[in-house]
Amino acid sequence: MPGVTSIDVARASGVSRTTVSYVLNGTPGVTISEGTRRRVLEAAERLGYAPSAAARALRRGRTDLVLCVLPNWPIGPLLDLMLDHLATALADRGLSVLVHHGRGPRPLSELWRAVTPRAVVGFAAFAPEEERAMRQAGIQVVSTMVEPDNPRAFAADQAAIGRVQVEHLVARGHRTIGYASVVDPRLVDFALPRLAGARAACADAGLPDLVAADVELSVLSAADAVARWRASGVTAVAAYNDEVALAVLAGARTHGLRCPDDLAVIGVDDLPLAALADPALTTVGQPIGPQAHYLAAAVLATLDGDSEPPPHPAEGLGVIVRAST
Amino acid sequence: MPGVTSIDVARASGVSRTTVSYVLNGTPGVTISEGTRRRVLEAAERLGYAPSAAARALRRGRTDLVLCVLPNWPIGPLLDLMLDHLATALADRGLSVLVHHGRGPRPLSELWRAVTPRAVVGFAAFAPEEERAMRQAGIQVVSTMVEPDNPRAFAADQAAIGRVQVEHLVARGHRTIGYASVVDPRLVDFALPRLAGARAACADAGLPDLVAADVELSVLSAADAVARWRASGVTAVAAYNDEVALAVLAGARTHGLRCPDDLAVIGVDDLPLAALADPALTTVGQPIGPQAHYLAAAVLATLDGDSEPPPHPAEGLGVIVRAST
DNA sequence: CTGAAAGCGCTTACAG
DNA sequence: CTGAAAGCGCTTACAG
Description:
Oligomer: homodimer
Largest sheet of chain A: 6 strands, mixed
CATH class of the largest domain in chain A: Alpha Beta
Distance between the termini of chain A: 66 Å
Shape of chain A: elongated
Strand order of the largest sheet of chain A: 6-5-7-8-9-10
CATH topology of the largest domain in chain A: Rossmann fold
Radius of gyration of chain A: 27 Å
Structural class of chain A: alpha/beta
Number of domains of chain A: 3
Number of strands of chain A: 10
C-alpha cells in the first residue's frame, strides 16, 4: 500500500490528524494522554505509516538534508573521512548528508532546487551568482575552500604544505631543488598554492628558484623530468603528492639513479603505499582528524546562525621521514 | 526574496497560475498564444522564479532524483566513473543523481524517506525488509551487487578475476601458488569470491590448493606472509588487488628476494601506480567503460519498467603483463 | 486559448 | 487534552 497517510492512522486509532501529528512528532508543549499516545503509536506501526517528506517539506518550508557538493577532482580517503565525520555530527541534529559528485551535465541549481537542503557544503568554490541564488532560496552555504576571505575554510593551508617540503629538503643540505607538478587541471586549486609555497620557502632560504616540471603518472614522463632536473643540478625533488613522488622514483630508477643519494624525493599525503615503495617515501602528513572535526563544527555553527566560525585548528603538518630523503 | 511563487508570476504577467504552469512546463496538449507565453517567461525570469520542489513533489507524487547508496568500502576511481556515466545518462531524462555514503549512524530508511527518489541504486545488497519497504513506497530498486539471483548486477564476476590471475601464473609454469588476502572486512563481498575463483582455478589445473595469507598494507605484515609462502614452496602469489600486491612486493624485498625469479606477483585493478612499481606490476584489468555503460542501461531499463534487463556485457577481463610475473 | 477550484499530505495556530 | 480548519505551492481535470 503505497499510500498510508496520517488520516489513516487517525481513523485507525480513533483520533484526529492533529493528535497523530502531536504524538508522532513529540511536539513540545502539548501533553497527550498515555492511552491515546499508545493507540496512535500502535496504529502507525501496524499500518507502516511514514510521513510524506514532500508534504512535510512544503509545510515546514525546509528539509532535513544537507547537500555536500564535491568538486571534479578524484575523491580520496581524506574526503571520505570528512564526510563520515560530518554525517555523524549532523545525525545528532536529525540531519542527513547527501553527496553530489560535481560531474554530469546538469547545472548545479537543478540539484539544490530539487533537494532544497537546509545547507549546502561546497568542497570547491561556488560561482558567486550560484551562491547568491542559494542564499536567496534560504539555504545556508558553507564553502570549505581555502580562500583569502573565507574564515570557514577547513582545508589545510596548501602553501604551507609546499613550504614544509622544501624546508625539509633544505635541512637535509640540498641547495638546488626541483618541483614535480601534477598535470590534472582539476587539481589546480591545490597545485598552484603548493608550488607557490615551495617557491617562497626557497626564496626565504636564499636559494635559487626551484626547477618545476610537470610529471604524469607514467615512467616515461617522470624519466623526462628527472633528466631535466639532473641537467639543472637538482639534487632533491618535492612532489605535488605521493603518487607523483612515486612516479619520480620510477623515473630516477630508469636513469640508474639511487635515492636519496643521487636524488632525494618527498611527497604529500602519506598514502599507505608510500611506506611500501622502494625506497620508502618520505612525505608530508596532514592532520586529517582535526580537519574533519573542524569541518563538522563549521557546518554546525553555520546552521546555528553563529556569526563567528569556530577556532581553526593548528596546521599540524608533519614530515614523515622515511628512506627517500 | 525567498518566496517567489507561481502566483507572483501570474500576477506580474496578468494571467492565472494555470497558464503559468502550462507555459513553464511546456505541458503537452495545450497551446498558449505566443504573446502570453512570452510575457510569462519574461516575468518568471525577471522575478527569479523557481518552482517549489516540495510542492511539485507533493502534487506529482514523485521527485526527479535517483539515489545511489554506496557501501562502506573505499570509493575508487572505478566507482567515480560509474557515477559519472550514470549521471550523464539520467540527465537526459531530467533526473539528477544523488549519492549516499553508506556511513553514519542514521538508518538508511531515514534517507530515502527524506529524499523520496524515483529510484534507489544500491552498490551493496540491501536488507530484504529495507528493499521491500522502498518498493512499497513506490521507489524502484536496482541492486548492482553480483548475486546468484540478480540478473541486473553490473559488477564483473569476482570469481572470474581470481581465476584469471591463477591461470596466468599457471601458464608461466608455477605449480605452488599463494594468495594474498585483504584484511578489511568491508571488502568481504569481493574478497571471498575472488579467493574462491582462484581456488577453483588451482583445482581445475590439478594443482595443490593455494596457500592463502592475510596481508595488511604494511611491510611487516607482508614480510610475514612472504616467509610463510617461502616455507610452503610458493613461487607465485595472486593478490586481492594492486595495493596488496605492492605490499607483497615490499615484503619480498625485505627478504632479499627477486621478483619474479624468486617470487612472481600479480594484482588486480591496474592502478596507475602499478606500472610505477619496481618491478612493474602485472595485473588484471577490468573493462570499466562497458561496466559503466551497463549500469546506466540497467537503471534506465528499471525506470522504464522493462522486465528484461539489458544484455550483460562480456567479461573482458585482461591480464596486463609487466615485469612482476 | 485561459481561469476557478480541487487536492496532494502535512503541521499548527485557534478554539473548545 | 483534543479537533476542525487553514494553508504551504504546485498541477490538472473541468468548465467556459
